[in-house]
Every structure is written in C-alpha cells, then in structure tokens.
Amino acid sequence: MDQIILAISSVFGALSNSGSSGLSFVFHLLGFF
Questions:
Q1: Where are the alpha helices (DSSP H) in the chain?
Q2: pTM
C-alpha cells in the first residue's frame, strides 16, 4: 500500500512539471487501475 502512495506522489510531482500532459498520464493510470 505504501508503494502505491509513493507512486502517486511521484505522478503528482511529474504532473507539476509536465502540466496538461501529466494530467493525461494520470487519467491513463486511473483507467489502468
């Protein structure tokens, strides 16, 4: 469970740097889960 939280934190960090492309990546991950 902790690994999932760390992964989410990493995604949000990438999102801050990437912008809208990061959002697309997050939605793709959400679809995967």
A1: 2-18, 20-32
A2: 0.42
